[in-house]
């Protein structure tokens, strides 16, 4: 009897999921950011200058894991999902060696201003000139989505950096934001309870940034339970390892984050609610220096660091023309929010997102 009841409940859940997936034809978007990841590491793979610098502790291990026989092989070894999936099924922008440029429009060139630009579609150097925990006066595209019937209470954000509740302004926007060392709350499943336990027991490397594996799995469990239509995930390890001068950990973290995104895409493509109706937009909040000299030091970014304004964008989704790596052209970070708004068909009288959406066709 118990077995029959269990089979009935499983069948009912499956049918309900299928019906809900068929009823809701509005597209879904996952906006994903990797903090402080340079375009060079995405498009050219292992940086041999940094490999042979003071920032690398275990050169042999990095060579074994990430150095092949060509630039193309190197970058694929570092980010296999980007180059085996996105490069074949989506679009990649920012390889400056091929004339493809993506730049910030804000002049601060560090995290809060960068995330504000990505999320709101405009730079705000007047009000946002630090990483302090001040509530953002600007309205993000996440908040815009949450204000409209099609996406009301179907927006969620997860971040490794604990400043994100302020960047997204969770109090005003009403968007649930799990960031920093926050635990999952509400009616928790077994895995969420376990994540809460081990997050409190795990060593704290940075006081304001948790390890990305927690951010990822908190997000994934929430997605599996609630099926939000707009999800923002911000991975943060890469920037903190770079600031610490740990090139080994930076490269391994970049490789791991690529795998986390691949895991999320695999789930999305095997879930009836998301399959064939979901976009991934992936980018970074700023670049960083390209060497060991003070004005271009790899560990740093900001107005006094050459190249910190250079970023990149990757896009994957059902109506994205699979052109792969794009050559000559200029994009800006402030085009990301308008692109997301166009995909979702959001309505707005606010002219802040006046930048042109990225052409996906």
Describe this structure in words.
By secondary structure, this protein is an alpha/beta fold. The chain has a single domain (26-344), classed as Alkaline Phosphatase, subunit A (3-Layer(aba) Sandwich), CATH 3.40.720.10. Helices cover 40% and strands 12% of the residues. The protein has helices at 2-23, 39-43, 48-51, 59-66, 71-78, 80-89, 111-120, 141-146, 164-167, 170-173, 190-201, 212-226, 237-243, 247-268, 336-344; strands spanning 28-34, 91-93, 100-103, 155-159, 177-179, 230-235, 278-283, 313-316, 324-325, 329-332. The strands form two sheets. It has an eight-stranded mixed sheet with strand order 5-4-6-1-7-8-2-9, with helices on both faces. It has a two-stranded parallel sheet with strand order 3-10. Helix 5 (71-78) packs across helix 6 (80-89) and helix 11 runs antiparallel to helix 12 (212-226). The chain is globular, with a radius of gyration of 20 Å. Mean pLDDT is 94; it is low at 15-22.
Write the layout of secondary structure elements.
Layout: H1 2-23, E1 28-34, H2 39-43, H3 48-51, H4 59-66, H5 71-78, H6 80-89, E2 91-93, E3 100-103, H7 111-120, H8 141-146, E4 155-159, H9 164-167, H10 170-173, E5 177-179, H11 190-201, H12 212-226, E6 230-235, H13 237-243, H14 247-268, E7 278-283, E8 313-316, E9 324-325, E10 329-332, H15 336-344
Number of strands: 10
Strand order of the largest sheet: 5-4-6-1-7-8-2-9
How much β-strand is present in the residues? 5-15%
Shape-level CATH architecture:
3-Layer(aba) Sandwich
Tertiary shape:
globular
Low-confidence stretches: 15-22
Mean of residue pLDDT values: 94
**What summary fits the major beta sheet?**
8 strands, mixed
Q: Provide the CATH superfamily.
A: Alkaline Phosphatase, subunit A
Q: What's the helix-strand series?
A: HEHHHHHEEHHEHHEHHEHHEEEEH
Radius of gyration: 20 Å
Q: In terms of structural class, how would the helical and strand content be classed?
A: alpha/beta
Helix content: 40-55%
Number of domains: 1
State the distance separating the first and last CA atoms: 54 Å
Continuous helix count: 15
């Amino acid at each position: 009897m118990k077995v029959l009841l269990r089979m009935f409940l499983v069948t009912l859940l499956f049918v309900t999921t299928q019906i809900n997936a068929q009823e809701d034809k509005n597209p879904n978007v996952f906006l994903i950011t990797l903090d402080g990841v340079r375009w060079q590491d995405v498009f050219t793979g292992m940086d041999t200058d940094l490999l042979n610098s003071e920032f690398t502790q275990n050169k042999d291990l990095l060579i074994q894991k990430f150095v092949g026989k060509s630039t193309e092989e190197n970058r694929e070894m570092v980010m296999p999902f980007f180059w085996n999936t996105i490069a074949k099924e989506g679009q990649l922008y920012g390889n400056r060696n091929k004339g493809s440029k993506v730049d910030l429009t804000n002049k601060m060139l560090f995290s809060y201003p960068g995330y504000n630009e990505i999320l709101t579609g405009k730079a705000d150097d007047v009000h946002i000139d630090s990483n302090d925990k001040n509530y953002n006066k600007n309205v993000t595209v996440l908040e815009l989505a949450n204000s409209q019937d099609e996406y009301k209470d179907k927006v969620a954000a997860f971040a490794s950096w604990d400043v994100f509740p302020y960047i997204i302004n969770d109090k005003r926007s009403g968007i649930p934001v799990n960031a920093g060392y926050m635990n999952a709350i509400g009616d928790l499943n077994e895995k969420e309870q376990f994540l809460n336990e081990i997050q409190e027991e795990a060593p704290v490397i940075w006081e304001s940034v948790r390890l990305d594996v927690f951010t990822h799995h908190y997000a994934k469990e929430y997605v599996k339970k609630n099926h939000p239509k707009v999800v923002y995930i911000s991975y943060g390890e890469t920037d903190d390892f770079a600031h610490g001068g740990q090139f080994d950990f930076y490269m391994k973290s970049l490789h791991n984050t690529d795998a986390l995104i691949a895991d999320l895409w695999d789930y999305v493509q095997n879930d009836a609610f998301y399959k064939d109706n979901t976009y991934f937009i992936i980018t970074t909040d700023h670049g960083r220096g390209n060497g060991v000299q003070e004005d271009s030091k790899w560990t740093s970014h900001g107005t006094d660091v050459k190249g910190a304004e250079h970023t990149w964008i990757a896009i994957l989704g059902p109506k994205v023309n699979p052109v792969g790596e794009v050559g000559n052209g200029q994009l800006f970070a402030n085009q990301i929010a308008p692109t997301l708004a166009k995909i979702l068909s959001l309505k707005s009288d606010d002219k802040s997102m006046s930048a042109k959406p990225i052409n996906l066709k």
